[in-house]
amidase (Rhizodiscina lignyota), 1112 residues
Amino acid sequence: MTASWEQTATAKRNAIYEKIPQEWRLAKIPTAEEQKDVTGTYVHQFLSEKEIEITETDAVGIVEKTTSGAWTAVEVTKAFCHRAAIAHQLLNCLLEIFFDAAIADAQAYDDYFAKNKAPIGPLHGLPVSLKDQFHVKGVETSMGYVGWIGTFEGKKGTGKEKVFESLMTTELKDLGAVLYCKTSVPMTLMTGETINNIVGFCLNPKDRFLSAGGSSGGEGALVGFKGSPVGFGTDIGGSIRIPAAFNGMYGLRPSAGRLPYEGMANSWDGQNTILSVVGPIATSARSLKLLAKSILSTKPWLHDPLVHELPWRPEQEQIDTSKLTFGVIKHDGIVTPTPPVRRAVDMVVKALEKSSHEVIDWSPTPNHEAILKTAFKTWIYDGAAHAHESYALSGEPAVPQLANFGDEPGPQYNASQIAAVNVTKRQQQKEYMEYWNSTASKTKSGAPVDVVISPVAPYPAARRELFKYYGYSVWVNLLDYTSVVVPVTVSSKELDPVDKDFKAANTSDQEAHDAYDPDIYDGAAVSIQLVGRRHQEEKTIAIAEYVAKVLKDAAT
Amino acid sequence: MTASWEQTATAKRNAIYEKIPQEWRLAKIPTAEEQKDVTGTYVHQFLSEKEIEITETDAVGIVEKTTSGAWTAVEVTKAFCHRAAIAHQLLNCLLEIFFDAAIADAQAYDDYFAKNKAPIGPLHGLPVSLKDQFHVKGVETSMGYVGWIGTFEGKKGTGKEKVFESLMTTELKDLGAVLYCKTSVPMTLMTGETINNIVGFCLNPKDRFLSAGGSSGGEGALVGFKGSPVGFGTDIGGSIRIPAAFNGMYGLRPSAGRLPYEGMANSWDGQNTILSVVGPIATSARSLKLLAKSILSTKPWLHDPLVHELPWRPEQEQIDTSKLTFGVIKHDGIVTPTPPVRRAVDMVVKALEKSSHEVIDWSPTPNHEAILKTAFKTWIYDGAAHAHESYALSGEPAVPQLANFGDEPGPQYNASQIAAVNVTKRQQQKEYMEYWNSTASKTKSGAPVDVVISPVAPYPAARRELFKYYGYSVWVNLLDYTSVVVPVTVSSKELDPVDKDFKAANTSDQEAHDAYDPDIYDGAAVSIQLVGRRHQEEKTIAIAEYVAKVLKDAAT
């Protein structure tokens, strides 16, 4: 007798929980009302001082310790396994737990270090979490679909189940990273909240009334909880940046073709107008650099046909901070950011201006409305055929956040229609690029703007089922720009009251306004993104690190 | 009253001819029977010694003279205009002639030189011909469609007619190049022979019984005739390499995203599974480098959203000729190359082996049959809708070479079907890439093969309406590899008799065998391509230059 989808999902959910050692299980899971913020002092009660020290060190700090022998890979790994186990119980953020394999790998690295008096690679002993699109040997990939459980990407008997490995998985191991868990995703990956029928809704650790974001939401929650120093997500419309921002973390959305996507599971694989990209979410900007640079040191262009031969370029990190200029998007012309997001953008602008940087208004042609119209067409090319096929594998229902995909597949775009979108996209990229070039005539330095400051979403984070507007993230995907998320502040019911006399310009504007509640949001992280030109990962990360410092200085 | 397509085509054909100065018009155009080969001594009768000297100097040699002031831009330009005018009369290779504008531009460069005692750019005074996909200010672009005459890409009243310029056109002018003509293409660009209803069938200058190839066939004929030292074509299935090979010239098919395609006219623009790329055809390998390097010096990635930030990398030109290893494709498993092509491949292999290079058999997985099956699907995505729409603009009939597009549009691929092709393509690229990596275990050097020697087509050139098999060029497009065409020898009725006892493996094999005739082909150029990995333009051109030298040494 075949199991029902509910039985399969429950068995999987229980199996994940069973991977948590008894001593790490919490006696009671508080509700959001009982415990809104589970970071910081709340989680500290469950951890040793050493565990706190380790898990509150960023990736760069960790590898300084592990590559010098100050910390063993095993103690670091165990600390993060413990904190990740707590994270999952409080937040529903994991889809795969493989702590035993991680500790065994860490032990092997320690043995290597003991024998060779040298680290195995630049990421020696660094725990790295992975979104559940990465295939890892010995571990399943469900990608949030009940119908994928026990299969390889929905197919049975391929021989690849728990054997095949994504390219970056192998590269991370070769670099010395310790893999220990895979994080939750929304089914289809096409929503900014993370929810599936296996582990349910992923909560925001800073504010458990809110979503951790999506689609790399498990990753965002885990890193935000410091259950991981750095993890990898993917982004086709904001899926790295949204959870990074919602959890007050740093996140890199590189341009397509920079980091290897080879061998990853995906939704509607083969849509190639706007490509999903892989990138890190971390607790510091310099950690994004460590990971990106380390991955590029493996020459991924020799193993991924879509990666360009662009090694890490140290000369492009050398930013002249006396000459940096910024563009700023305070409003995209469609949806008004909610008060805490507006305040965060203003804080960044003021801090930069105080540091003598020029910040100019960003008023591009084409406007974002035109760009978004093009981008959203790519989301419905296949009439959600892939989504419906995936639901049908188990008979599970779609989560409410996917209502826009309908009850059955819609009409598909044909080749001529897709070609027309591709042409429009390229024309818009060209026009936007020339707008960017033209800012040279507007800046005092006479050079084009270096990066653009922009919200990531209208809200600091999303309330459940209320994430309706993706315009602040999606424009970057259409243009294929580099973006780095930088945390700025926390939402405050005192500083960020509801806009009085608000008059919505359109339905989306009204929805964003209505979704904001100062009490619910009080204490939630608020972040912005710095958007650099295509393939400017070195420069954009360097500027993000600098801006974070400027913000820190301004706060003290 | 609206003109018939025949009237429009005739008027355009006559207008092109009228642009040829009276003194450059030939009294009589010999038939192929009367004059098979119109290169060399035949054309010399119409030219002055100085004109011969100039037009038989390669692009690098020309810029040495023009940038030092030894030759004026005007004298160089006039010499090539004259030879191009003769080429067109004998070969039907031009769609646009703008000698007056060219001479005026050349004069301006000369004035600049006189004033500044320095060239205006690295291509100062170098005549460069362009395939009729480039938009040039003041000049029409028909792209071989009668229905495009008097329009901008088939649309009337756009305001762009004869005003809009392709990015590379502008860049070439900025570099000091002199633009003077645009070369003929087949309507739709999707055939390896060059024929349209405006100027007719483009002949091969070395052997006027044969096609000059396509779709950059006007370019191939013109450069082959030395009516241009270097010109630009495009390649989505062999369209640079086929005419380069058929005319015994050098041609570069770069990987996508290296040279800027921005603002070019195209067929079925927006098909983005396999992108058309732009690249030079020239009389020497070092000229390919000059042009590619010069274009990249303009930083085209700041003006073309599809160009990657890959400047010319001089360090990648530094090939160690003591360690080069080669793969060789003598047969692709589908169609047997005709005797002169087999001999050319053998000549290259023997010359390299004589120079102590290792040449190993190339037996990739996936095999080429699988690759071609994927590639050819992209050709029919839109059921030839774009082609039929373009014919319909004027009511002109398709040329016989396009019979496979049918009398009306066929069914289109939908989004899911296109996505499936994209996935298969990427998987094949990955598998092929790993095969290439694996050749490290087969070579004595322990490094993977540097470049692969391959035919470009089964024949030295095509007989009219007999170009049926594109497998030897198309595999490179699917894999997005760099390829450089190198001329090797000429066809010989003595050395290359018809294969006796030939047994065809399939219809294509039989057709290629049947198309070969030692008498017709006697004297025709025979070339091969050297295929490098993706984005290895520097290295592949350097090896091509080296191989050309090895061949020359072997011949003497």
